[in-house]
Design brief:
Elements (H helix, E strand, L loop, with lengths): L4 E4 L9 H9 L5 E4 L11 H16 L15 E4 L10 H22 L5 E4 L15 E6 L11 H14 L2 E4 L2 H4 L7 E3 L6 H5 L13 E5 L8 H10 L4 E5 L7 H4 L4 E3 L9 H4 L4 E4 L5 H4 L4 H9 L3 E3 L13 E2 L3 H11 L4 H10 L5 H13 L3
Parallel strand pairs: 1-2, 1-4, 2-3, 4-5, 5-6, 6-7, 8-9, 8-11, 9-10, 11-12, 12-13
Length: 377
């Protein structure tokens, strides 16, 4: 029997997460209620958090997007709930209040959609305080991040919430071996990320603002795990190249903006990214070596591979299955040499990359998850 879903994830349309990729495909043959983020840290005094609070209130009261731009359309079988919630992990009063506020809002949508005994999908550890509020038949914890080290998270209370959630969940899906190793073996399965192969492998027109000449490119959020020092040094050593960085800026980036041939152009819709990464000369994965990156499984890795273009990366475990197709360099000198060498790569290497990930689609991953979900009772 096909099980309906109550999904707690990030704000729908805010960024193309693995949860969103999977659930969009699962919604093709089941009803889904998607609940926007209930928060992983207390708000701080500052403009950024005040702006975020206003966005969340506007979404809850007027049904507008909780994200900067809601670029991802909502599938017909999926309803988005922008909840009124108090983002304060670990606070008993907040947990009590959220259970009542969020529970009431979600149950109202469930009743309107005729949803009974759904599977509760938790992509955030703080959902543990809401378990049992929806008459759910089972709970699935989908762990796509190392919340113990993720930037912008109240690590102590969120880690404790994750421990409780892992103990109570019926099944756990983990996006990397490092994440899977933290949970009970008997109920944990590894689910590597997929990719929209059709989008990234099909030829796309060149983006109109892609610079001429050799371009080394990166897309993704500019966060604490991006090795800005490495990227800036590589750009200084290769003044004839343009280093193009696409994504939302979440940390100070003076190290990058001070280098003339580094260009930051802000975020672009996910559907527009092939117009960049299919046409630049080399794709970059310049990450700092820390616990979060060692446990990560970046979505862009398989997307880069699907284009066939050369890839230069710092070392981290998620590369192991593709190490023969990627130039891995731990320092600026190796990074620069690999970027230069990418111009002389034979075309056969591009075909090898595309072939390696051809079957690693989000549709294939979602089919695995559908079998698991529909077997829960």
């Amino acid at each position: 029997m096909t099980a309906d879903l109550i999904v707690f994830g990030e704000d729908w349309g805010r960024h193309p997460s693995s949860t969103q990729h999977l659930v969009k495909r699962l919604a093709a043959d089941r009803r889904v209620v998607w609940v926007n983020s209930i928060g992983l840290r207390r708000p701080r005094l500052g403009f950024a958090d005040l702006k975020r609070i206003v966005q969340k209130l506007r979404a809850a009261l007027f049904g507008r997007s909780g994200g900067p731009v809601e670029r991802e359309p909502v599938p017909p079988n999926l309803s988005v709930v922008a909840p009124l919630a108090l983002p304060w992990p670990g606070n008993p009063l907040a947990a009590w209040l959220n259970r009542r506020l969020v529970g009431r809002q979600v149950r109202r949508v469930m009743a309107a959609r005729g949803i009974v005994r759904p599977v509760l999908w938790a992509s955030l550890p703080t959902v543990v305080d809401l378990m049992g509020a929806f008459g759910e038949r089972a709970t699935l914890y989908y762990c796509g991040d190392d919340f113990a080290h993720l930037a912008g998270v109240d690590h102590g209370p969120v880690t404790r919430a994750e421990t409780r959630l892992a103990a109570k969940a019926d099944r756990i899906l983990a996006a990397s071996p490092a994440l899977a190793a933290r949970f009970p073996t008997a109920k944990t399965l590894m689910l590597p990320h997929g990719a929209d192969i059709a989008l990234f492998a099909a030829p796309a027109p060149r983006a109109p603002d892609l610079p001429e000449g050799p371009v080394a490119g990166f897309y993704g959020s500019l966060s604490a795990w991006l090795d800005q020092a490495l990227l800036a040094e590589a750009a200084r050593r290769l003044p004839g190249w343009t280093f193009l960085v696409i994504g939302e800026v979440r940390v100070p980036v003076e190290r990058l903006t001070s280098v003339p041939n580094v260009r930051l152009i802000g975020p672009r819709p996910h559907s527009a990214l092939p117009g960049y990464c299919q046409h630049w000369q080399v794709s970059l994965l310049p990450f700092i070596d820390n616990a979060q990156i060692r446990a990560s499984n970046p979505l862009k890795l398989r997307e880069y591979l699907a284009t066939g273009q050369p890839i230069v990366s710092t070392p981290f475990p998620a590369l192991d299955a593709y190490a023969d197709l990627i130039s891995i360099a731990p320092d600026a000198a190796g990074f620069v040499a690999a970027i230069e060498q990418s111009l002389h790569e034979p075309d056969a290497r591009r075909a090898e990359r595309r072939d390696r990930v051809r079957s690693e689609t989000w549709e294939a991953r979602a089919a695995q998850v559908a079998t698991l979900i529909d077997g829960l009772s």
